[in-house]
Write a structure and sequence with these properties.
Blueprint lengths: L12 E4 L2 H7 L2 H10 L5 E2 H8 L3 H13 L4 E2 L10 E3 L4 E4 L7 H28 L5 H6 L11 H15 L28
Length: about 200
């Protein structure tokens, strides 16, 4: 468990430990929806359909599932009240399934992790497909690296906290006034023990 100063202990991040919430999240359209709403924006089902890749009615179904899981909520109306507007007070997720959890939680955690990994891989492949058309400064700035470490579990936990702390000031939720030329980038950080 992260200490109180760790980015993983941020009260604006949902602490997801139950199978029902993990299952509610384990869909690419729902991940796209929370990605938009966790930025602090509010949006209608029609607006979110553009990011989910679904129809507004299908998007509404996913919005209700996310609301039932407590991850989003209805926002104040923008005017005449004919459209439902959605928002989230959350700015991220921490998914944690300790070994003592039941089989349902472990299976839901695995399913959710696979959805996130598929999404991260799709984003990396999309970058590879378009990088030759990007400005050279962005081509040079993008990177992928693999490093094999030799660490104890405690050292690895500390390293994870340090890396996340370095990234935190640049997180979209914290960059209320980014400098000119800034753009969104995806950072994937995976640390997995080898067999």
């Amino acid at each position: 468990m992260a200490d109180e100063t760790s980015p993983r202990s941020d009260p604006q991040r949902a602490q997801v430990r139950d199978a029902a919430t993990m299952r509610a999240l384990a869909h690419p359209a729902r991940i796209a929806i929370i990605d938009r709403l966790f930025s602090g924006e509010s949006a209608t089902a029609t607006e979110l359909a553009q990011v989910s890749g679904l129809s507004p009615s299908a998007t509404s179904y996913h919005l209700r599932a996310l609301a039932k899981a407590g991850l989003i909520e209805e926002a104040p109306s923008r005017g005449d009240g004919r459209e439902r507007v959605w928002q989230s007070q959350l700015r991220g997720l921490n998914v944690e399934t300790p070994p003592e959890r039941g089989a349902a939680e472990r299976a839901a955690d695995r399913e959710l992790a696979e959805v996130f990994m598929d999404l991260e891989n799709q984003r990396a492949r999309a970058w590879l497909a378009r990088r030759d058309g990007e400005p050279y400064e962005w081509y040079q700035a993008a990177t992928a690296a693999g490093v094999q470490l030799v660490v104890t579990a405690e050292e690895l936990r500390q390293l994870n906290d340090q890396v996340l702390s370095v990234l935190e000031p640049y997180a979209r939720r914290n960059r209320t006034d980014p400098p000119p030329g800034a753009r969104r980038v995806d950072v994937t950080y995976r640390v997995v023990p080898r067999a």
